[in-house]
């Protein structure tokens, strides 16, 4: 019973983070299930089956809050589903340990870019509104879907920073579109795992508990992303990307950093992230105050000379 309660809380927390930052449901849930002792394929299958429900609930919630660009959903979601099915069916037994550091290095670079760009200058506006083309979204979807199926998570960490870095879509639209398109990825990956390993190694009670926790959190997360300012949201996403991928790199065979070095690095990243968040919040408030003052000045009626 204690395990089920813990799983429900993890499902809630994972979806709250995923729905508001566009990533981390699979990573968080997969980490816990692997810690309990589930094998990799069954873990990924369990998480993706739960994600069918959580991503559907999240997509509906984001749609109601107008956080979705449906063109992006179809252009990235369909290739993502193809990549996820291929990864789950044919490559679920292939170790991705050797590829993880390379992917983490790329994502870490994107995370630094996003954190610096949003913290120092807010939402990129020079390309805002320009279309995201299929030749960019289709390969991105294939890669993200493949990584998601073989690694137990990765749709958000791969897709969200790449689209954010393009500067062509508002952060809330990026997150809502990634969450909605993940429904297609979850269905395809689940089908692939059932074809590849069957259902005997999947604990459907765990699937249900993760699902319930995630569905409760989905509308809350969609409301949060609707009301969090883009500048602050961008800084938050950048910090999550940097921290999670720095952890992967430091623990990889490339670096294999001692525990003390890892602790120091995590602390330094957390301090820099907190400072960036505080700066973004301060600058946002300053911009809001300036805009309010300008609006009040423009709205003030011209004073005509008094007549006697």
UniProtKB/TrEMBL annotation:
The keyword Manganese does not apply. It is found in: Cell membrane; Membrane. Pfam families: TauE. The chain crosses the membrane at residues 40-60, 72-92, 98-116, 136-155, 175-197, 204-225, 263-281. It comes from the Bacteria. Its main location: membrane. It is a multi-pass membrane protein. Keywords: Cell membrane, Membrane, Transmembrane, Transmembrane helix. Belongs to the 4-toluene sulfonate uptake permease (TSUP) (TC 2.A.102) family. This is Probable membrane transporter protein. It comes from Actinomadura alba.
């Amino acid at each position: 019973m204690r395990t089920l309660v813990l799983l429900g809380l993890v499902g809630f927390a994972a979806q709250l983070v995923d729905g508001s930052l566009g990533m981390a449901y699979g990573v968080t849930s997969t980490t816990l299930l692997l810690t309990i002792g589930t094998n990799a394929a069954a873990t990924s299958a369990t998480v993706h089956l739960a994600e069918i429900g959580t991503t559907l609930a999240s997509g509906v919630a984001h749609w109601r809050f107008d956080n979705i660009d449906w063109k992006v959903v179809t252009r990235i979601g369909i290739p993502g589903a193809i990549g996820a099915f291929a990864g789950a069916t044919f490559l679920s037994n292939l170790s991705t340990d050797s590829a993880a550091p390379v992917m983490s290095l790329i994502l870490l670079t994107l995370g630094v870019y996003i954190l610096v760009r949003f913290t120092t200058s807010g939402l990129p506006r020079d390309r805002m509104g320009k279309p995201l083309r299929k030749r960019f979204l289709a390969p991105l979807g294939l890669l993200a879907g493949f990584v998601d199926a073989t690694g137990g998570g990765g749709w958000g960490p791969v897709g969200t920073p790449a689209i954010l870095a393009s500067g062509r879509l508002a952060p809330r639209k990026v997150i809502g579109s990634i969450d909605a398109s993940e429904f297609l990825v979850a269905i395809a990956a689940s089908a692939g795992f059932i074809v590849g390993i069957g259902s005997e190694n999947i604990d459907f009670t765990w699937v249900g508990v993760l699902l319930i926790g995630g569905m409760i959190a989905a509308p809350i997360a969609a409301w949060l992303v609707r009301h969090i300012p883009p500048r602050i949201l961008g800084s938050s996403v950048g910090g999550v990307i940097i921290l999670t991928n720095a952890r992967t790199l430091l623990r990889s065979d490339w670096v294999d950093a001692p525990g003390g070095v890892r602790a120091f690095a995590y602390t330094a990243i957390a301090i820099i992230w907190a400072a960036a968040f505080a700066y973004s919040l301060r600058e946002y408030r300053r911009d809001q105050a300036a805009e309010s003052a300008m609006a009040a000045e423009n709205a003030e009626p011209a004073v005509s000379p008094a007549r006697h």
